[in-house]
Structure formats: C-alpha cells, structure tokens
Amino acid sequence: DAKTTQPNSMESNEEEPVHLPCNHSTISGTDYIHWYRQLPSQGPEYVIHGLTSNVNNRMASLAIAEDRKSSTLILHRATLRDAAVYYCISNTGNQFYFGTGTSLTVIP
Amino acid sequence: KAGVTQTPRYLIKTRGQQVTLSCSPISGHRSVSWYQQTPGQGLQFLFEYFSETQRNKGNFPGRFSGRQFSNSRSEMNVSTLELGDSALYLCASSRGPQGYEQYFGPGTRLTVT
Predict the structure, then answer these.
(1) Other Cβ atoms within 10 Å of A7 Cβ, number
(2) Could you give phi then psi for residue A81, rounded to 5 degrees?
(3) Residue A58 DSSP class
(4) Alpha carbons B15 and B88: distance in angstroms, whole number
(5) For the stretch A74-83, what's the b/e string if a residue is b when 16 or more beta carbons lie within 10 angstroms of its beta carbon?
(6) What is the pLDDT of residues A23-77, one digit of tens each?
(7) Which of A91, A100, A101 sits opposite B99 (nearest CB)?
(8) Environment class of residue B23 by beta-carbon count within 10 Å: exposed (0-12), middle (13-18) or buried (19+)?
(9) Contact list, A32 vs chain B (CB under 8 Å)
C-alpha cells in the first residue's frame, strides 16, 4: 500500500505563507496526490490534487517533486479559518489512504 | 446544491446489536465511499459503491457491509457491534469512482456501550 508521511503538527503566523510537506516514497506512476483538510467537528474538505505538475486553485497550490516522492501544499496567506488537520493522500488502486495528517495551528 | 447528508447524526447502541447508517449523496453523484474515523486509527476506508456495485473494500471484517440503491443513496450496516466500533462514520460522494473530488458529509457518531 502506498503510504504518506506528514509531520504531526505545524504552526504558522496569520497572513504568512504555510508550506505543508508530505512524503509518498512508494507512490506509483499513476497515483494522484490529493490533499484534504478537516476542520474541527466537520467532515474532510477537498483542497487540491495533482499527478505530476504543480497545481493551483483558489484555496492553495500543490508543488510536486520531480521524482514524485514528495509534495508540498502551500497556503499563500494563512488565516485563522485555515486551522485544521491537513491530510495528504495517495490514490492507490482507487482507494484513498488517509495518513495521520498535520494539525495546523494559525497564530493571530 | 444540497450537500451530503447522513442520518442519524448520533447513535448509541449496545454491544451485540446491529446498526444501519444512511447517506444521501449530492444530486448527480454516483459514487459513495464510507470511512471510519477514530482517535487511534485515524480515517480508514471502509468501502466504495458506484452505480450500485461495490468497487473497493478496505480491511474491515465482514460485520461491516453496505449497499447502494438506484438513486445512489447508500447504507452501511454493522452487525454484532463491538466496543471498538465506536467511531465517527463518514460518507463521501463524488461524480465518478474514487479519484475524483470527494464531498464529505458531517458523519454519524456511533457510540457502542
């Protein structure tokens, strides 16, 4: 099973950029990399996904390493509403494997 | 457009009983996936249904089962409940098979006593 590893927790100051890393060294060539986040007392929420090249949307950017063994979710300006657990997921065999996630604390 | 709805939101059951949880996907979505979330194990994939067929199943015992109806609504059933089944059960829907953007419901909090 392709697994992902993330730091347990990170902190960021409000309005500063945040770079959330993820290692997925066993990812196969056709596995997408997805990011979801879970706010307190809510179900997970889609953030972004990609395969090989960097991706941008209104919420975040996803930078994927050339060898695809790691990726970084970039929140360009952290707000208090971005405080959540961020999950990096590899999509293997059409199954989603959620890791333990990174708990992001945003400091006002 | 209405989001994913799950019923009931909270449930208390006794060991040995069985329980059925319901999930209504977003209109037009044909794929429904179920997950179990516990503090110790995190989010774990249970199974996925697409067009009334189970496409994938996670590593859970046969006491966990599910089905999908022709209107894409899905139910999951847990028989012979154990204390360890206490968890938040999340349902997610997507337009196509897993790999597409998934939309999660608020979950059903099951407590087994």
Answers:
(1) 14
(2) -75, -10
(3) S
(4) 17
(5) ebeebeeebb
(6) 988 787 778 889 999 998 889 999 999 988 899 999 899 999 998 889 999 999 9
(7) A91
(8) buried
(9) 99
